Amino acid sequence: MERRKTYIEDVDRGIYDIKNKFTYRYKSDKGLTPEIIIEISKEKDEPKWMTDFRLKSLEIYSSKPVPTWGADLSGLDMDNIITYVRPDADMGDSWDDVPEDIKKTFELLGIPQAERESLAGVGAQYDSEIVYHNIKQELVDQGVIYTDMETALHQYEDIVREHFMQLIPPNDHKFAALHGAVWSGGSFVYVPEGVNVDIPLQSYFRLNAPGAGQFEHTLIIVEKGANLHFIEGCSAPQYRVTNLHAGCVELYVRENARLRYSTIENWSRNMYNLNTKRAIVDKNGTIEWISGSFGSKVTMLYPMSILKGEGAKSEFTGVTFASTGQYLDTGTKVVHAAPHTISSINSKSISKNGGHAFYRGLLKVTPDAYGCKSTVSCESLMLDNESASDTVPVIKLDNDNIDIGHEAKIGRISDEAIFYLMSRGINEEEAKAMIVRGFVEPITKELPLEYAVELNNLINIELEGSIG
Amino acid sequence: MDRWDKMKIIDKENFIFPNIIDYKKDYLKSETKLPEGVVLEKITKGINEIIFDYLNTKEFQGVGEKFTSLAEESYNSGIIFYIPKDVKVESPIKIEFDMDEENPVVINQNIIVAEKGSEGTIIMDYTSSEKVGAFHNGLTKIYAKENSIINIIKVQRMNDISHNFDSNIAIVKGQGQVNWISIELGSGISSSNYSNFLEAEASEANLSSIYLGDGKRKIDLEYSMIHKGPRSISNIETKGVLMDHAKKVFKGNLDFKKGARLSKGIEEEYVILLDPTVKSDSIPALLCHEDDVEGEHAASAGQINENKLFYLMSRGLEEREAKKLIVEASFRPIIDRIPYEIYRNIVVDEVERRLMDGKN
């Protein structure tokens, strides 16, 4: 059984595991020194304030200790992570201009096809730099900006300077500081007042270089009354050395605006995914997080919503699937900082074959935020007894005029449910897969179709021959 | 356990102990004759280290190591209660500490051992005289062997210039049962920890508690159920009311260790918030290393249900009276589990007095 499982996993990762010959135009030395930072900044032809910002962040990075409260990060050898790798390609808006091997990788991952069929714009990042960015013309005409961060830094310097790392300052934690020092690539989206982007934008991040780090920065501003759905996808092939992903996502949702941010993360199993995501929501705005964590060796990811304006709303829907050798520490943080704000959190986690899923969440209501409502629901499914599943939701309430409900459940697939399905002629494994699919259904139904299909496939293959 | 967000409302590390002086009053009140073989006596120095060594467990932190070691090394009171095999002690053992000007310090260590198939009930009541800043630091250890039942009721109603620290540990063997009722009404600063180790097949622990935070009270509660044995059962039911400037931290840990197959654990915390100035923090943790278990926790917090309030007021009750009635209704199921009427009345009266005197 064990052998068969390994076999299937290898096949499953097939398209993600294609390694390209590691060619690059510029690669910084291993380790981190101010000289390397200055060099990266120079290579990118950045304004001086950004170079200074990077150096200041590096200082903070060196002064902060590695956090010890969550995952074991001792396997992370920072001196051996290559921070900046520039692929041997220039950014283009025509798919044909992208070098053949890189193009092939993304095509296998289904990126250009998805663009043709259902996306309004696509960005693709290969190692540290965006290699492709495209957006539908009608959106450009409406004033929507969708480009990579490097271009944004030059073309929209004022907006970037006003918002860059304001929500996630470098002194937030060690990896935010690291990000501030070595960030590269990522997407910049600006949706002007009242514009409704009715088809999703997507960025796809692919890390090919062995032992490298990916530090993309995503900055999205959705102006008053505007509407956007943004999708982020991540993957990397499996190498023997550890890779690090320490990206930052900063989302500004203005009055009456709405932003849905979906992530399907399927990093390879040697990845330390230490991403930081944060949204600030003004009056009557809405942020919706859809978050799927499947890959990586270690994940520590807690998207945070700050409900700053009266009537702001946040919804979090997350699914975490931890398998052999994985420690996935995920959750969400919500701060109710204004009256009549509403939040709902719905988290599902599955652990199997020795995987460890950890839900860690924070719900905070400040003294002035009266009339808030929040519901938190965490469900965990354990598929065997080698695995582990923990739930630690922190609830901090500083006023009385609120309505807070929290629920959590843990357990296994009930024998009755399996028996019932089997009595209907479905074999045991299919029955279990059906139950798991039903368990994550609230998540899959929130995803665009092709992602939902991908998620279902992942769950199918992950489960096959592995439980019972 | 390392926590993401260590919430501290009481600075225990820097807490300075008062001078330790003897507690001279009689605190052990047993009304009837005890069955043969039962040992019930005041603890004497040096006794427990030899006999009850097996009650030391490294996983147990209590309210803090500083406090548990003070209770182990420098106790000035406490009991040893031993029930032999198959003996049922019908009448409750009453332990009453009434701290006053001459006896303001109680540092007690209580050791309770129930042999196979035995049964017993203990009530511990802590009070302090008006205007006395009393200090209580307790450590209660229960060892419940196979098929035994221990019921233990703790009523803490010390005044609001007093300090209360209370660590409790229960080790429960196969089909043994420990039932705790904790009534937390008093002390300006109160920190209590209940840790239950369900060691073997069908070990069971139940914990029902109420707390009332008013004035500037700080309440720190930590309840742990550590499931080790298969088919072990645990229940935590906590109901609280916070008003004025009260602050509370509640940590409930439901921990299923590997091997705790077919175990069940339920943890519930409901708190009613009566004033905008209160602070209420909760961490209901659910930790699981075994797949075939059922674990659930639920927490809710909010104001008094407006419909209920409206209904009662439409029947002619004043707002304060109506609120009091609703709070009492929430507490009542737990108060009713106290097996002796006199204590039930004490608790009901105290809750009523505090709710009516307050500005609510």
Highlighted features:
heterodimer; A: 2 domains; 14-stranded mixed β-sheet; ten-stranded mixed β-sheet; 26% helix; disordered N terminus; B: 360 residues; alpha/beta; nine-stranded mixed β-sheet; 16% helix; 42% strand; SUF_FeS_clus_asmbl_SufD (chain B); SUF_FeS_clus_asmbl_SufBD_sf (chain B); Fe-S_cluster_assembly_SufBD (chain B)
Number of strands of chain A: 26
Give average pLDDT of chain A, whole number: 81
Task: Sum up the overall morphology of chain A in one term.
Answer: globular
Helical fraction of chain A: 25-40%
Relative strand content of chain B: 35-45%
Low-pLDDT runs of 5+ residues of chain A are 1-15
Number of helices, where a helix is a run of at least 4 consecutive DSSP H or I residues of chain B? 5
**Secondary-structure element order of chain B, N to C:** EEHHEEEEEEEEEEEEEEEEHHH
Strand order of the largest sheet of chain B: 1-4-6-8-10-12-14-16-18
Please give the number of β-strands of chain B. 18
Q: Taking Cα atoms only, what radius of gyration of chain B do you get, to the nearest Å?
A: 20 Å
Tally of individual domains of chain A: 2
